Amino acid sequence: MAEKPEEWEIVKVVGTPEEATIVVGFLNSSGIEAEPESLHVSELPTELGDLSEIRIRVPPEQAREARALLDSREDIATGEEGEDSGEPLEEAPGEGQGEP
């Protein structure tokens, strides 16, 4: 029996529904099941820390492959090569914290 999405692992955290759609679509097109999980509550402003995050979850057995695909996708986007290639991007100060 397949595990429930609540038991899936978080492989990426994004800040907008549009970015979540792109990431989930990318993973799905690569043969990895993925679902977005949003903690957003429409009654509250989205700038409330973790409540503004959208977590991308995948089954545990696909988490390693998903992370590798996402890391390589980020390397292509940034043009990184060499020693740090394949490493997750570091957040800029204040990024993802709801600061303007």
How does this model look, in words?
- It is built from 2 helices and 3 strands, in the order βαββα.
- Residues 82-86 and 92-100 have low confidence and may be disordered.
- It has helices spanning 17-29, 63-78, and strands at 9-14, 35-38, 54-58.
- The longest helix has 16 residues, at 63-78.
- The relative contact order is 0.20.
- The chain has a single domain (8-77), classed as Alpha-Beta Plaits (2-Layer Sandwich).
- A 3-stranded antiparallel beta sheet has the order 1-3-2, with helices on one face.
- Helix content is 29%, strand content 15%.
- The protein is an alpha+beta fold and 100 residues long.
Keywords for this structure?
single chain; 100 residues; alpha+beta; Alpha-Beta Plaits; three-stranded antiparallel beta sheet; 2 helices; globular; disordered C terminus
Give the gist of this structure.
The chain is of the alpha+beta class. Helix content is 29%, strand content 15%.
Q: Kindly estimate the percentage of residues that lie in beta strands according to DSSP.
A: 15-25%
CATH architectural name: 2-Layer Sandwich
Distance between the termini: 44 Å
Tertiary shape: globular
Low-confidence stretches: 82-86, 92-100
Overall residue-averaged pLDDT value: 75
Question: What sequence of helices (H) and strands (E) makes up the elements?
Answer: EHEEH
Q: Remind me, CATH topology?
A: Alpha-Beta Plaits
Query: Helical stretch count?
Result: 2
- Number of extended strands: 3
What structural class do helix, strand and pairing data support?
alpha+beta
Q: What is the CATH superfamily? A: Hypothetical protein rpa1041
Strands of the biggest beta sheet: in what spatial order? 1-3-2
